[in-house]
Design brief:
It is a single chain. By secondary structure, the protein is α+β, with helices and mostly antiparallel strands. The chain has four domains: 2-225, Histidine kinase-like ATPase, C-terminal domain (Heat Shock Protein 90, 2-Layer Sandwich), CATH 3.30.565.10; 232-367, Ribosomal Protein S5, domain 2, CATH 3.30.230; 401-479, Rossmann fold, CATH 3.40.50; 496-613, Four Helix Bundle (Hemerythrin (Met), subunit A) (Up-down Bundle), CATH 1.20.120.790. A nine-stranded mixed sheet has the order 1-6-5-4-7-3-2-8-9, covered by helices on one side. A five-stranded mixed sheet has the order 10-11-14-12-13. The longest helix is centred in the middle third of the chain and has 24 residues, at 342-365. The radius of gyration is 33 Å and the shape is elongated. It starts with a strand and ends with a helix. It binds adenosine-5'-diphosphate (ADP). Adenosine-5'-diphosphate binds next to helix 2.
């Protein structure tokens, strides 16, 4: 017999599982049944691609009552060799598991929903076990082996007896787990968590027999199938209730909440396939991690192929969970082939269209639900605007914005409805929190005219809008960029003297500004900074810097001055070089400051301000 030590990450995982998942300890059965089902999938896949027959693929459960309670889960799947037993159950092969553990904060460790989402696997058995024995024989192998451990630090592996390929797991139940050596408990858990498993799950049990007078006459051994074993997505919509979908979702996607909604589609015709998509109520925790997990599983004619292909849907739809089951793909389709495969491309294109049209339908028919959807997924949809050119028009109808005209969210279509008759463009302001954008001095003149301004608060908004250009032939213009100025050009004539002040200030500020323009729209402030039409705004530059793109050349802002403001008039009237220099510098810095940008040298700024005040 070999005695081995668990790799440290396994000990960590065991500890974590036992302490944080305790209130959900029953999930161990779901995990083991799901492993058995995967092992059957693997054998089924090989039998189909390599053309050999298999007996009925199945999962068998049994238990013993009394003093030594056990629960046994057995499958006749692909099995494990000696080395696989040690590798799969003694280390965490899954490199994702390790990274996941490292990234988990203490707060998250106590959030069992999060861990439930991830699927903890085999080790969860130790929540209910004093000891676990795994006897396995790999497909085509001569010998079987038994892995055994109390889940503390060590495990052993020894040769064992097993007729056919597959795996048998015996759980020696501890005090916490003894309730699971019970027919009704097992049936309920299987119904709740594993009903959809595509293979039959049988439960063996002894049942008392009775005579006419209800006296026990003996016991009868029974074996009964306890799941419905049909791939839910293959059943027709009319047969299924909302509850069936919700249960299926919660069990397969490891979420404790019902999905916001689901979309079940059967396509017939040139390409035949079934898709069942779910939109989680809360955005997946890894939605913004570079190594997020794909949420869509690919099946071919009900045979599971992969859950690890991020190309099944475009990145911006990475929050979608569910299944794609194709009739036409070959079973042995490899990832490289998948990506260029015509069938797969057709399914993907149609799935995106279907998802977007369903989102649209919900936005029209159920605004309340749509708001919940937008609260979670507005940002990824915006990514779609620059990733998915083909569907841009549809995405433009789906994204939502905060605005000066309404509480909550607005669509571009609704904005258009509200536009004033003399309004030329759709206006927006980027770069900051909703509260600070609302009070930007730039908005005053828009308010005066009754023009609505969209408040773009997402960090990617400026990039996204830049790629949008127009909405239904109406230009989108940033109020903090120079092109929005043109819309106001007819309002006031700029006097010759005012042009001269602008020149004077520009000269004083030198390279710190790209230009100084006399405003036709400002009131109540002396000046604001805007970006030249093709330059990023000052906030955008800060964001890029924060993202590590600090080596981008800095573009100086355009200073827009209010020639009627007394401070600007004072500069106009002054001939004192040192006053002009200090005043212009303060004029620029305070304009930057009200955009949330710190002056380059705050001490110098306050000194200059002070000298101007006394
Ligand atoms: P995961 O299922 O997430 O990979 P587990 O800890 O549950 O993690 O299992 C680790 C590995 O052990 C599996 O990936 C699989 O290769 C192997 N395994 C577990 N149970 C079985 C089984 N019943 N039959 C064959 N292999 C199994």
């Amino acid at each position: 017999m070999e005695r081995k030590q668990f790799k440290t990450e396994v000990s960590d995982l065991l500890h974590l599982i036992i302490h944080s998942l305790y209130s959900h300890k029953e999930i161990f059965l779901r995990e083991l049944v799901s492993n058995a089902s995967d092992a059957l999938d693997k054998l089924r896949y090989r039998s189909l691609t390599e053309n050999f027959p298999t007996p009925e693929l199945r999962i068998d459960l049994s238990f013993t009552e009394g003093d030594k309670r056990t629960l046994t889960i057995s499958d006749n799947g692909i099995g494990m060799t000696h080395d696989e037993l040690s590798e799969n159950l003694g280390t965490i092969a899954h490199s994702g598991t390790k990274r996941f553990l490292q990234n988990l904060t203490d707060d998250q460790k106590t959030n069992s929903n999060l861990i439930g989402q991830f699927g903890v696997g085999f080790y969860s058995a130790f929540m209910v076990a004093d000891k676990v024995e795994v006897t396995s024989k790999g497909w085509g192998e001569e010998k079987a082996y038994r892995w055994s451990s109390d889940g503390k630090e060590k495990y052993t592996i020894e040769e064992a007896e097993r007729e056919e390929n597959g795996t048998t797991i015996v759980i020696y139940l501890n005090d916490e787990g003894k309730e699971y050596a019970n027919r009704w408990q097992i049936e309920n858990l299987i119904k709740q968590y594993s009903d959809h498993i595509a293979y039959p799950i049988y439960l063996a049990y002894d049942q008392n027999t009775y005579d006419d007078k209800y006296n026990v006459t003996g016991t009868e051994h029974k074996v009964e199938q306890i799941n419905s074993a049909s791939a839910l997505w293959r059943r027709s919509k009319s047969e299924l209730k909302e509850e069936d979908y919700n249960d299926f979702y919660k069990n397969t996607c490891y979420d404790s909440e019902n999905p916001l909604f689901y979309i079940h589609t059967k396509a017939e015709g040139a390409t035949e396939y079934t898709t069942l998509f779910f939109i989680p109520a809360k955005a997946p925790f890894d939605m913004y991690h570079a190594d997020y997990k794909s949420g869509v599983k690919l099946y071919v004619r009900r045979v599971y192929i992969t859950d690890d292909d991020k190309e099944l849907l475009p990145t911006y739809l990475r929050f979608v969970r569910g299944i794609i089951d194709s009739e036409d793909l070959p079973l042995n389709v490899s990832r490289e082939i998948l990506q260029q495969n015509k069938v797969m491309t057709a399914i993907r294109t149609a799935s995106v269209k279907k998802l977007l049209s369903e989102f649209k339908k919900i936005s029209e028919q159920n605004p309340e639900l749509y708001t919940k959807f937008i609260e979670q997924y507005n940002r990824p949809l915006k990514e779609g605007l620059y990733q998915d050119y083909a569907n841009r028009d549809d995405l433009l109808e789906l994204v939502r914005f905060k605005s000066t005209a309404v509480d909550g969210y607005t669509s571009l279509a609704q904005y258009k409805e509200r536009m004033k008759s003399d309004q030329k463009s759709i206006y927006y302001i980027t770069g900051g929190k909703e509260e600070s954008l609302k009070y930007s001095p730039l908005l005053a003149s828009y308010k005066e005219k009754g023009y609505e301004v969209l408040l773009m608060t997402d960090d990617i908004d400026e990039l996204v809008i830049g790629s949008m250009g127009k909405y239904k032939d109406i230009e989108l213009k940033a109020v903090n960029k120079t092109d929005a100025l043109d819309d106001f050009a007819g309002d006031k004539k700029v006097a010759k003297e005012d042009e001269k002040v602008a020149e004077k200030i520009k000269k004083a500020l030198g390279e710190r500004v790209k230009d100084v323009k006399v405003s036709t729209r400002l009131s109540g402030v002396s000046a604001v900074v805007v970006a030249d039409s093709n330059d990023p705004t000052v906030q955008m530059q800060q964001l890029l810097k924060a993202m590590g793109q600090g080596d981008m050349p800095e573009s100086a802002p355009v200073l827009e001055i209010n020639a009627e403001d007394p401070f600007v008039k004072k500069i106009a009237d002054s001939e004192d070089e040192s006053f002009i220099s200090d005043a212009c510098s303060v004029l620029l810095d305070q304009a930057l400051l009200s955009e949330g940008v710190m002056p380059k040298n705050p001490a110098e700024f306050t000194a200059k301000l002070h000298s101007l005040l006394i």
